[in-house]
Q: What sequence folds into this?
């Protein structure tokens, strides 16, 4: 008889690892999908094969990485079930993931879906009533097995049809981790990730930045927010200039390189040519300014900030050349470093930094 396949949502946390292993222990082939967005685990897209290899060698789980960004950027405009404590639309997030996973089932020849959700573990998204809403709104009713709490939930198709033995599933409930840790030991898993907030949308410091761009505060229309916009929000020095421009300055070589890699054709990119200093992006400079004098004024202020945060030359000239490229043209502005008092009100979230990758 051919082996039956299940498609599991894989966060990389202990619960999702255990959910995969519990189902696999019943002779089911489990294929796991790791969804990424610029809000969580986006760096995995740089080398999905390495992630796949790591997860297989550590946990024996076959995983593939899938980019959920386009639908996710859209979802954040109006999540039907609202936000959690921060800018985290956890219920809609799960609905979106399950909806996407459901669409993949035919291609993978999967008979049912698996998640590592535990009843009562999280106040918003893992209440019994919310688990029901997630099933209903993702259209995964009855085909979704939550093996860690299955004995406390209604019977799913996989159990009813005998694909898995309900008696060997679990009845985990609540926030405690002891039973998960004991089960991990049974599977010989000792090197498992500690629970951590890997999602920027649920992060106290970073989620307000995402929220602000969705409120239209960065000269970016909400419907035009891109993956690059989100990534640019998460590092560097951030400013909103008097003309409305959104300026990001790198604080070290690594951030400068990342800024250059994220720059788009409509951005102005500024740098001091002759000595170490920040790279800066004036986002969407070519298309966002209705008035050219306003653009020129913001470019000059941006250049002056670049000099301010660059390495100052002892007894050097007060003015420095800053090169900027906009479209196909590269130009130069001669400016003095800006005085600190001038730009204090333009700073957006100075000092809070995420891993730029
Ligand atoms: S914390 Fe982030 S990734 Fe997790 S369910 Fe909520 S929104 Fe989705």
A:
């Amino acid at each position: 008889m051919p082996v039956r396949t299940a498609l599991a949502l894989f966060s990389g946390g202990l619960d999702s690892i255990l959910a995969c292993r519990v189902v696999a222990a019943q002779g089911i082939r489990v294929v796991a999908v790791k969804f990424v967005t610029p809000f969580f685990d986006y760096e995995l897209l740089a080398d999905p094969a390495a992630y796949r290899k790591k997860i297989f060698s550590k946990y024996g789980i076959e995983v593939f990485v899938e980019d959920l960004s386009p639908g996710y950027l859209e979802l954040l405009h109006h999540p039907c079930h609202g936000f959690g404590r921060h800018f985290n639309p956890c219920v809609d997030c799960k609905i979106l993931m399950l909806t996407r996973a459901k669409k993949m089932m035919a291609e993978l020849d999967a008979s049912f879906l698996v998640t590592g959700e535990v009843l009562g573990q999280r106040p918003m998204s893992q209440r019994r009533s919310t688990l029901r809403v997630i099933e209903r709104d993702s259209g995964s009713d009855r085909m979704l097995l939550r093996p860690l709490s299955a004995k406390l939930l209604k019977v799913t198709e996989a159990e009813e049809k005998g694909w898995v033995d309900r008696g060997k599933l679990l009845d985990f409930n609540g926030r405690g981790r002891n039973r998960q840790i004991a089960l991990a030991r049974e599977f010989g898993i000792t090197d498992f990730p500690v629970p951590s907030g890997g999602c920027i949308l649920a992060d106290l410091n970073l989620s307000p930045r995402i929220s602000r761009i969705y409120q239209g505060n960065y000269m970016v229309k909400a419907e035009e927010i891109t993956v690059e916009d989100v990534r640019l929000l998460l590092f560097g020095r951030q400013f909103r200039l008097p003309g409305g421009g959104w300026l990001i300055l790198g604080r070290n070589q690594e951030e400068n390189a990342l800024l250059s890699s994220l720059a788009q054709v409509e951005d102005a990119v500024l740098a001091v040519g002759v000595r170490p200093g920040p790279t800066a992006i004036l986002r969407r400079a070519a298309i966002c300014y209705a008035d050219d004098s306003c653009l020129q004024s913001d470019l000059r202020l941006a250049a002056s900030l670049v000099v301010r945060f660059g390495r100052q030359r002892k007894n050097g000239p007060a003015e420095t050349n800053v090169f900027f490229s906009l479209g196909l043209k590269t130009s130069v502005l001669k400016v003095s470093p800006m005085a600190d008092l001038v730009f204090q009100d333009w700073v957006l979230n100075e000092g809070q930094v995420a891993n730029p990758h």
